[in-house]
Amino acid sequence: MSSSVQASSDVRGAAVRFEHVQKSYDGEILVVKDLNLDIAPGEFVTMLGPSGSGKTTCLMMLAGFEPATNGEIFLNDKPINNVPPRKRGIGMVFQNYALFPHMSVAENLAFPLEIRKMGKSEREEKVKRALDMVELGAFGNRRPAQLSGGQQQRVAVARALVFDPDLVLMDEPLGALDKQLREQMQYEIKHIHESLGVSVVYVTHDQTEALTMSDRVAVFQDGVIQQLSSPDDLYESPQNSFVAQFIGENNKLSGVITGIDNGLCGMTLDDGTKVTAEAVNVGDIGSRATISLRPERVELEPQELRDNRVNGKVVEVLYLGDHLRIVMSVAGNHEFIVKLPNGGRHSSPIEGQSYQLGWSALDAKALDPVS
Amino acid sequence: MKFTAGLTGLFALTAIANVATAADELPACEDCADELTIVSWGGAYSNSQNEAYHKPYTELTGVSVINDESSAEAVAKLRAMEEAGNVTWDVVDVVASDAIRLCDEGLAMEINHDEQLAAAPDGTPASEDFGDLLVSDCFIPQIVYSTTFGYRTDVEAWADNTPTDVCAVFDTETFPGKRALEKRPINNMEWALICDDVAKGDVYDVLSTDEGVQQALDKLATIKDEVIWWSAGAETPQLLADSEVVMGSTYNGRLFAVIEEQDQPVAMLWDAQVFDLDGWIIPAGLSDERKARALHYMKFATDTQRLADQAKYISYGPARLSSAPLVGQHADLGIDMAPHMPTDPKNAENTFLYNYEWWADNRDDLDGKFQAWLAQ
Amino acid sequence: MSASIQATTDLSTPKPLTVDGRPLKKSLARALRRDKLRAFLLIFPLLAFIVLSFVMPIGDMLFRSVENSIVEKTLPGTVKALSRWDSTIGDIPDEAVFTALADDLMLAQEIKRHTRLGSRLNYDQPGISSLFRKTGRRLKKFENTAAQDALVQINAAWDSPAAWISLQEIPSFDTHFPATAQSLQNWSGWVASEEGEEVDATTLQPHGFTYASLLQDLKTLDASTWETLEADASGLFTGVNDQLQNIPEENFTSQFADIDDGWLDLDNWRAMKRLSPRYIDSYFLASIDSERTESGVERKSENERIYATLFVRTILISLVITMSCILLGYPVAFLLANLPVRASNLVLILVLLPFWTSLLVRTSAWKVLLQQQGVINDLLVWIGLIDNAGRLVMINNMTGTIIAMTHILLPFMILPLFSVMKTISPTYMRAAKSMGASDSLAFWRIYFPNTIPGIGAGSILVFILSIGYYITPALVGGTKGVFISNRIAYHISSSLNWGLAAALGSILLVLVLALYWTYDRIVGIDKVNLG
């Protein structure tokens, strides 16, 4: 154990560190495979992934409710594998809030303070401050059941923060709220995080949430972090097509590499079309790769010169108010999406007709080498 | 209650009476229901009735008999049936005190014993044949049973002493160990007074006073800690067989089963046995067809031969004087039943006579006092 | 028109009307009537079932606990006569009462009701049942009264029904001949109830006691009434007044005394007077070990008190049983709620197993285990924990009742607890621990309070079931472990004192309702979760 502490001396100052953490429930299948992750003090890190990807398991290991099968987790540079949850001092917001139904809101908030044997006046002071922070100062005497979903959510956040933990874990806290409330809460949580400076580990399967709130996002798939980077990197430079697909919308075109030069590569798509793309993650010439292309980066009937010009046939046009969503058949992909901003000037494309499409080589990312 | 003398005397008779069965003379029943619901106690007792009465009757008449084992709650159920206006029973087997109660409540039909029951083979009318056993106008006696004590014969702590009289029950020094007594005042109060130097003939006079009741309870109090109180007849035999108690009161037929059928180290203490009667009543308010059928059955089942037949299956004495000489051997064990009858002269050397009238008057009152005493 | 009246009387808040001018309320009610009728028809079978099987029996029980019409029904004349008798003076009632009694009993024994009355009165006055039985048997012997003989001798017409018809046609017959009127009324009432039809007055021949009543009435008449009577066309009364003095005094008092001197016992008469009202509180008084005496309501003597002790004991033992069910059931329910489904189903079957075995089998099994020569004692002796002489008494006492009943009632605690625990999210405990609570603190502060509705539901079930149990206490309770319900069962099935059983049952019902009310007040019945 001491050796791993030494080995980690180069990343001193990390609030949380996972080192080669593995987890298996049944001794046969690893749900978390060799996880390594550093979270800096004050950082907001989101674990994003589909259900069953291992993100919640990681959170539970960090909280102490699940033991790590192998590897070590550090909290403020101290190994915590053998520290029980109650001694970890981590605030936690649960998926369904887990507000104690038999206690009033104020009692819920006072509970962690009572355990810390805090005096009554100090306790009340802190509870009041925490309630004010989430703008529920007048609701202290209510029972959780008498609050709306959004209010309960805020109480849960306040309760996780009231005892001033350095680290707060949030397990899909907004999952039960409707869309509007969810967006509002995203900003509030982000705001609280910024004003308090605590570290936050946030688990969600909602990519918008992840992009809006986080400093960094760890995208989970099959118990492995596929990519850990800031939200804009994640969107602009996905490392593989799973990330590209999971974060935002994405068109896929597959083909064979014909040449690589200065970060760009030439490719022949399966229907013979030749295109140029950014060689993000590709193999040698002659190997297969997949091009990932954001729908909003494709231009219909481009006026200016584009690196790539390809013909496509309109399959369906959907009117979505601020933009038109056009499903096209392009180079063998019959679900190729193009988003056309509603400028009011164009007449909309006609189903069944062919149009020319264009995009910049840097917007097309060649990924997923297959040898 | 002078029937004991007469009954026991008859066992000494050697002459075999006329064994012709009354069934031969039983006229067919006209306008009678062809179904008969008979209520009894269940177990070995119902079995003996089934063998001795029901089967031959079905053979003779083709009437189907429906057995109901509700005798223990017969009084309450009959009253409920009467209130609901739907009496579903035709013939009910009850103890004599219940018969008196049912007759008082108007729930049982009055019987003209001489007209409606078979005479003895020698022509003696039924009322004479039953004699003093006709304790109620509604009651048709069937058996004489007794409540008496059984004791284990292998108790080490007793050294070589063997209980010879009922007062051994109250002598915990010579005969240490638990006793089983019935959880009601009847019999216990009498035994307590007898063992507290009250003459047998004075027992009910003494018991009629508050002081007498207290005297009996005080005597019982001397063994209260050593008593397991039973409320079902099967309990004492079981307790004796399990060595839970060293002696206990129960019905003589139950003790017979423990001693002769199950071969347990238990012996009978016939001393101060209390005779009681069990028999039939016919519920009041039956339809004419059902009443005719019930009476027809009654005439058959309580004739001299039938009553004697029952003693082949269970060690209770037949209620007719004329049946006594006909008592034979046990149907399975092949032993003579006469010496096991409570009415056998050797067993009946010292019996106590149960006063029905007195208990009918004082049962509720004394039961209250007795239960209050138990609860203290 | 109605609209205008409404407008003038109800100007401030005009009632809303439909477009065709009918009041909206009426219109709505009409529209809903069909639905309501449908809904009612749907629940009607259940309603009928509940009324038949629940409301009526309970109502019947409450009624029986105060009902006492048998005395007045059986002895109507006696009850009337007794109302004029002062029971506090110390003399037994006068001849008039005995005359009425003879008259009443005569009819009562014809329909076998006198013994029934005797057993009713015997509950309060031991010995009176044989008094009635004996009297009923011998009453016939003095039916032919001297009065009858004498009257017939004076005028043979008194031997025919016609005499009685013309007697009743005399103006103000009822006021001049009150005893006779009562007697005739009883007689014709009885004949009517026996024959099941209107009485044909021409065939009505009264019995001897009616003659006695008539004679009694005749002796109280004044001279002017006699004049009227003697002028009567029938000539029935001609010469009667002159010979009245020669007719020997009827003395029913001594005749009754000859049958049984119990009729001279003041206590018997006091009991009859006390019990003559149609509705009485004597059953309830008996239920609290009290009785009404000449000096008012008194507690019974110490050695006769039993019901208060039993009520208290029933409640205490039931509480102990409830507590042990909580203590034993809670961990089992917790286990059930937290095991994987397959394992918890297996445990659930084990929990329900007691339901599937007969009560008697279970109780017998406890006997085998608990008795002094039983399995547990044998084991303890074998281990050496106790010596052979010091075998534990675990059955036929309170311990036996508590053990056996706890076993029987345990499922009723476990099931509601289980259903409540199942709904408690494990994240509550996690949340508490994440806030720093130790396991035990998290349990007592968070988990346990959330299971209280289950404990409440289970406790109410177990407690209410337990205070009504009687078979198990009777089998394993010995003397110290029997319940009030055992006495109720005794009075129902053995003593036939249903009135007292009903009164005890009513008190038990009130206790349960009080408990329910208290629970509702403290915890709230809406929090009860039966699963």
Secondary structure elements and pairings:
The complex is a heterotrimer of chains A (371), B (376) and C (531).
Chain A: H1 2-7, E1 16-24, E2 30-39, E3 44-48, H2 55-63, E4 70-75, E5 78-79, E6 90-93, H3 105-115, H4 120-133, H5 149-161, E7 167-171, H6 179-196, E8 199-204, H7 207-213, E9 216-221, E10 224-229, H8 231-236, H9 241-246, E11 251-261, E12 264-269, E13 274-279, E14 288-293, E15 299-300, E16 308-319, E17 323-330, E18 333-341, E19 354-359, E20 364-370
Parallel strand pairs in A: 3-8, 3-9, 6-7, 7-8, 13-20
Antiparallel strand pairs in A: 1-2, 1-4, 4-5, 9-10, 11-12, 11-14, 12-13, 14-20, 15-19, 16-17, 16-19, 17-18
Helix pairs in contact in A: 3-4, 3-5
Chain B: H1 3-11, E1 35-39, H2 43-61, E2 64-68, H3 74-84, E3 91-95, H4 96-104, H5 113-116, H6 126-130, E4 140-152, E5 179-182, H7 188-194, H8 203-207, H9 210-221, E6 227-230, H10 235-241, E7 247-251, H11 252-261, E8 266-281, H12 288-301, H13 304-310, E9 317-318, E10 351-352, H14 356-375
Parallel strand pairs in B: 1-2, 1-3, 5-6, 5-7, 8-10
Antiparallel strand pairs in B: 3-8, 4-7, 4-8, 4-9
Helix pairs in contact in B: 2-13, 3-4, 7-9
Chain C: H1 2-9, H2 24-64, H3 69-74, H4 76-82, H5 95-110, H6 114-122, H7 128-138, H8 146-154, H9 161-169, H10 173-176, H11 178-195, H12 208-219, H13 223-230, H14 240-243, H15 252-259, H16 266-274, H17 282-287, E1 290-293, E2 296-299, H18 307-338, H19 341-356, H20 359-370, H21 375-383, H22 398-422, H23 426-434, H24 439-468, H25 471-476, H26 484-493, H27 498-522
Antiparallel strand pairs in C: 1-2
Helix pairs in contact in C: 2-27, 4-5, 5-11, 5-12, 6-7, 8-12, 11-12, 18-19, 18-22, 18-24, 19-22, 20-22, 22-24, 23-24, 24-27, 26-27
